[in-house]
Each structure stands twice: as structure tokens, then as C-alpha cells.
Amino acid sequence: MIVLNSSDGATFEVEESVAVQSQTIKHMIEDNCADTSIPLPNVNGVTLARVLEYIKKHAEAKDDEEGLKSFDAEFVKVDQASLFEIILAANYLDIKGLLDLTCQTVADQIKDLTVEEVRAIFNIMNDFTPEEEAKLRNDHAWAFE
Amino acid sequence: MDLPQEMMMEILIRLPVKSLLKIRCVCKAWCGLIKSPSFIDMHLRRSGNNKYVMLKRYIEHENQTMISFHSNNDEAEKSLSLCLRSPIEVTWFYHRNLEAAHLIGPCNGIVCITDGMDIYLCNPATRELRKLPPSPFGCPEYYRPITDGVGIGFDPSTNDYKVVRILYWDAIEYRPDHQYQAELYSLNTNSWRELRDVILPFYHLFARCNLLFQGRFHWRAWHALAQPCDTDCILSFDMRAEVFDVIHYPPSCVGDLGLVENKEPSFVSLNDSLALILCTSLPEEHPAPPQIIDIWVMMEYGVEESWTKKFSLGPFTIGIRRPLCLWKDDKQLLLESRSGQLISCSLLPDELEATEIKEHDIFESSTLLEGRIYAESLVSLNPIYMEEAIIE
After folding, report:
1. Distance of CA B11 to CAs B49, B126, B226, B376, Å?
2. Of A84, A107, A119, which is closest to B1 when you measure between CB atoms?
3. Which chain A positions have a beta carbon within 8 Å of B16's beta carbon?
4. Are A144 and B11 inside 8 Å of each other by CB?
5. For B22, which of A85, A103, A115 is closest by C-beta distance?
6. What ipTM describes this predicted complex?
7. What are phi and psi for residue B165, nearest 5 degrees?
């Protein structure tokens, strides 16, 4: 069993065979940095719990394609902020499948939004002048329909 | 909360081209990112996961050439009845002069369309269209240039898209010789150059029967000078090395005269190998006598001994005009029936029944159907340092 410590002090136990879905953890174990527990200062308790839920399910139901598909679909039904936290965690822990799933989810969510809505979600300031923005829109006006 | 740039990239490369063209307007950083060559490259690599069936058809009574895209992923894999959903997008591309146009490519999301006289490059995802400048090379008096075939490809060593054009000088008064030429267009320089030192055999091409495969462009050809033994073969052009080569058909496919008899060849990529589809020619009579489709695979590219007959489909009695393309991860073959409808048949051994598909009818009658598997890209037809306007 491997012990993981989140940034806010929560402790989690997980089987090594499951934990190594995270390439980051896998390398730490291989480099013998995991004797007592593994500190994960970049991931908070709530997010780490979710990530572990994902990798546990994907370890135990490995061959059940249908089951995993519906699990994944339910798994990403969280609020935006949590989804972003999971993306960051999946990236830090280097869990390819989870990163793929969460990034694709966000992509699907923003695919049909307006430019203003996308700015709002990512908290981005519009630094185009009105003329510059108008030109960009005109270049591919059909994309905005 | 703010996601770092690296994570934004992971999200953005999963977006379709249409969304990306819109989302460029969010801010300058995103605009620059989406236009950057590395992003375009990453997006192109991922785009291969999401393929479409691209169909080109000519609508006679409207004198229009239309390209449409259809889903390649149908969840109902078990039943062959519904295979093509309504077109995802019918592109804008109409052009009066291209009634006999045919598709070349695609290559990294770029398609070449030509009627033998004018050549266009097109990115259907970004709706960019570029007409190639006419070739500056003339031909001698009493001759006129006739385009025999066109090919497209990507040269990774120069990061350039190239169009090769094979033409011959046709004598205005009959002369028995044909002078073949090859010319190469480079998108980066927007110019043509002659391929003078390249050995070009005297082959006539069937321009419509073509395939870009692993960096080489292939045409169905026959050797024009090999009297009395005209030999059917495949002519290839290596887009990077700029060299022609010839691949012969499996020996059992050609008759004594070296010709493929009573069958129409076409080429596809089948599980990353070059494959030859031979379909019994469609006669005029009704009902059509049974047709067989044989599929030969060149197990090792360039090694003629490695041709292996992998599939023999049919007999079909519905009347098949021509095969179009493989789809559904090379598991099914899309065909055009004699009535201009789309049919799909499975390559898997236990599902040999051809089943008709109802395509969403946005056209009544069409001819000259062509099909390709297509993946979107952001590749621009306007390399940054070009000042040419896009001609529409």
C-alpha cells in the first residue's frame, strides 16, 4: 500500500498497482522516494480523493469498456472549478487517461459557446481593439453562425 | 481560476476547426497560439482521431460540384442498415467551371481539386481556397499542353505542400509521339518549376484513380509505348525525393496483353498498407450480372511479390458503379451503386451482405461520386510571408 498526503494534510491509502497509473507516483516509487508516504503539495484533499476514485475504478474494471464509459461520463459531471482542479492534478500526476477525459470534457463544453462566454469561463480580458476583433470575425464570419 | 497555458493547449487542440476559428477572438495570446505552427501541427496529429468521410459529387442540373462531410463513427456497428448520418456540413464550394472536377488527396487536411485545366487547393475546414497560378512553361508550336494527372503531397524536409502535374504535349495535327513533362508547384514559393532531370516513363494516367500514400502519390497508369503489350500499372511519385517509380499489379490480375480485363482498379490505404481494389466492370444490361470485388494488399510496400489477395467480396447483383473509399477504420467499403446511391459493405468475413444506406437526400441525382477519409486541420494555404489574396 502507498500513502499519499495532499496539500491540506489529508492522508490516503492506495494499492501500489493502482497508484502507478500516475507516472509521477510511479517514478517516485522507482526512485525510492516513497518509503513512508508521498507528499503531493500540488493537489488538495478533495481533488486527490476524486483522482483516486478514477484510478481505482480504471484499475478494477479495466476490461469493462461499457462500464468505464458510463463511469467516465458521470465522473466529469462536476462544477467547472473542480474540473479545472482535476485537470491540474491529472497533469501533475501524469495520468494520461484522466487528462484526456477532462480536457476533452472542457473542449466539448466550450465548443459552441460565444467568444464572450469563453472569456468569462477562463477569466480572460479582451485585449483586442474593436477594429481588430471585427476584422478577425469577418475573416471567418461563417464560423460564428 | 486560471489554467496555465499548457493546459489551455491540451483543451484547445481537442476543438474542431470551426470552434478554433471563433475562439481566436478571445484574446491576443490565444490568437497567436492557435495560429502558431506548433499548435497547427499538434492539432493535426490529434485530428486523425476524428475522421470524416468526405464525398464529392457533381450535380449535373445545377452544374455544381459539392463536397460534404459525413460521420465516420456510427455507434450502430452491429447493424449495417444506418451507416451515414446526414451530412455534418455541406461546404460552400461551388464553382461553375469544375464540372468534371476530381479530388486529389487529402493531405494534412488540404484537398486539391482539379478539372485538368485549373487546379485549386482547398482547406474545407477553414474554407480557404487557393487557385494555383498557371504553369509558366510553354510548349512548342503546333502542340498544346494536356494535363494527364495531378498529385499532392507534403515534404517534411522543407515543410512545404507540393502539387505535381504530369502533362503531355499533344500535337494539334496528329503526330505519333507524345512529349511528357512533369512540373512541381510549391505552396511556400507559390511557383512552379519543371522537373527536368526526373525520369518520367511514358505512361498515360487515369487521373481520377489516385491515392496519396505514405508520402508518395499514386496513379493508375498504363504504359503508352509498350505496343502491343500495353501494360497496366501504378505510377508513383515520391513527393520528397521527387522521383517517379512504377508498381506492377499482381500477375494474376493482368491478362496476356498486360491489361486488367473487365475490372476497374482503384487504390486505397488498408490498415497502413497499399491496397488494390478490383471491381468487375459494370455492364449496361439490367439486371447486372454478378460483380465481384477483390482486394489485394501489398504487404510490403514496393515489393511486388508481396501482393496478397486478402478479400473477395460478393457476388453482388445490385449493380456497383465504383468503390469509393474504406471507412470505419478500414472495416467497411463504401461504394456507389449504378443508381448513384451509397452502399456500404463489410470486409469482415461473416458479414458479406451489401446493405443499402439511405443518405440524407440533399441532392436528387449526382454523378462522379468520389470519397475519401478526411481529417480536419488548420493548415493555412497562405503561408505567412505570402501576400497573395485568397481567390474565391
Report:
1. 15, 19, 57, 16
2. A84
3. 111
4. no
5. A115
6. 0.91
7. -130, 125
**Taking CA atoms, what residue in A is nearest to B30?**
A124
Distance CA B28, CA B350 (A): 55
Per-residue pLDDT of chain B (392 residues; tens, 9 = 90+): 578 888 999 999 999 998 999 999 999 999 999 999 889 999 999 888 878 888 777 766 666 667 777 777 654 332 222 233 334 344 445 444 445 678 898 999 999 988 777 888 888 888 888 889 988 887 777 777 888 889 999 999 998 999 999 887 777 766 656 677 889 999 999 999 988 766 666 677 887 889 999 999 999 988 766 555 568 889 999 999 999 988 989 888 887 767 777 888 899 999 999 999 999 887 777 677 888 899 999 999 999 999 999 988 878 877 888 888 888 888 888 888 777 777 788 887 555 455 544 343 434 455 667 888 888 999 998 864 333 333 33
Here the cell at position B348 is 469482415
Contact A87 B8 (CB under 8 A): no
Contacts of A119 in chain B (CB under 8 A): 26-27
Cβ burial of B123 (10 Å; 0-12, 13-18, 19+) is buried
